[in-house]
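job 3f2a | input accepted
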Amino acid sequence: MKIFNYYLITINICQFLIMGLDKLLAIKKKNRISEKTLLINAFLGGSIGALLGMYTFRHKTKKLKFQLLYPLFLIIHIFLYLYIKKALI
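job 3f2a | predicted structure (89 res):
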């Protein structure tokens, strides 16, 4: 469980930083990080970092896809985390 916790912390920090980087690239009109990459990282466990990055950097807040999927991923992750935690006890 310890390794899983470290994984979640790491992916959420990375996702938060990726959201910030993509916002900076958007401001500077440079090549962006794809929406697919942002969504995959959030799906793989970075939903908290994605939501925090979305509202901290005001990035992707108007896109319905992100407004719906990031919270959905978070709900799924909470249930999975609780299930795994219960299964390991």
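job 3f2a | The CA atoms of residues 13 and 49 lie 6 Å apart.
job 3f2a | closed
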